[in-house]
Amino acid sequence: MTEATYYRKGFGLKAAIEGLLSSDYHSRLIEVLRSRGHQLSAGPLTFRLAREFGFCYGVDRAVEYAYETRAKFPDRRLFLVGEIIHNPHVNAKLEAMGIAFLHRSEAGTFDFSRVTADDVVILPAFGVTIHDFQSLRDIGCVMVDTTCGSVLNVWKRVEGYAREGFTAIIHGKHWHEETKATASQVLKYPTGRYLVVLNMEEARLVCDWIERGGGDAEALQARFAHAMSPGFDFARDLERVGLANQTTMLSSESLAIAEEVRKSMVRRYGDQSDAHVRTFDTICSATQERQDAVLQLLADPPDLMMVVGGYNSSNTAHLAKLCASRGVRTYHLEDANCVEVESGALRHHPIGGAGSDEVTETAWLSGVRTIGITAGASTPNNKIGETIARVCTVAGCGAELEAAL
Predict the structure, then answer these.
(1) How far is Cα 182 from Cα 389, in angstroms, rounded to an integer?
(2) What is the per-residue pLDDT across 112-143, written as a single tens digit (0 to 9) for each?
(3) pLDDT of residue 347
């Protein structure tokens, strides 16, 4: 019998990996917090955990599927295209299991020259571009696809736009794996076009062109040089547009951008605007739920917020930005070890900062009594629990925390 070379629905090995998953990611402290109304006191500190936080369904599935793949193919070489999710702890666990990571070159492309037909390749939760997918198909290796269902919904949406002659305007980061994969879907069609806008500022540049029916094309070409489909023509390709988004963006901003584009089409085309613009229903429910839960927690503001998750995690960064925008002192920590037990210092990523640069603070706990906690959708529970435990150690109330459990 010929071996299947594409898997998307798992291998039925969840029972075989449950113990390993639990030991790698479970947190008794977090379970106690949940059972006590998401609040726990230790000494002078009270921790308040957002109602929705950490691993979402799509991340859970991707991680489980990667573990199942290792169990299914114990003697095969396993590769992962990029990172399974944007969390250094999870990716380190997979690497320790013998899964080799394929990284992008400076040119932005993956080198699959190491991969043979005898190997197994895991596609990440973000998905891969149609070019990378076809390259792996041509090699003939086994592919295990962990692409999130919410991402697939966006793909269907932009593919539909391209099929019907609409340009996909995508709210996202053009360099992000998910957005690269989403944008590539429109290229299945000869006339498929896309334009990626990072924020409302860039969206308004597009809206100004739409409303005026023209403008400085050279300036826009320069601004969006790396964020548009090959051969993009602003005069031709902004007549009919459809909106979509990277699932981990700030959902309120995605909706606001969609509304701004719709209004611009109304100003340009009046009663005929419906024939020129389509909006979307691709907001990721998990992203929305985590953002809503943070806003609920901030209705009674804590002294400070701690947001735990990878510095390159878009949804984590947006949670931190959302907290800071409400005037609450907010720290984005990549991992629990950012709370330095020996020195008492805190390493964190500046809100809105680029790259992986960290800053360090020493007096960050002074006068603090209430600490809000949340985590990005790619952050495992044990890292959230470890963060709380390390904060208590720095505050001198580690024994009280143990007693509270």
Answers:
(1) 39
(2) 999 999 999 999 999 999 999 999 999 999 99
(3) 97
Q: What distance in Å separates the CA atoms of residue 120 and residue 141, rounded to the nearest whole number?
A: 6
Q: Do 179 and 221 fall within a single domain?
A: yes
Q: Does the predicted TM-score (pTM) go above 0.85? A: yes
DSSP label at residue 110: B
Low-confidence ranges of the chain (pLDDT < 50): 1-2
Integer angstrom CA distances of residue 178 from 1, 130, 170, 196: 35, 12, 11, 12
CATH number at residue 91: 3.40.50.11270
- Domain with residue 314: its CATH number is 3.40.1010.20
**DSSP letters spanning 245-311:** E-TTS-HHHHHHHHHHHHHHHHHHHGGGGGGTEE------HHHHHHHHHHHHHTTS--SEEEEES-T
Residues marked as catalytic: 178
Torsional class of 375: left (φ above 0), alpha (ψ -120 to 50), beta (otherwise): beta
Q: 359 in the Ramachandran plot: left (φ > 0), alpha (ψ -120 to 50) or beta?
A: beta
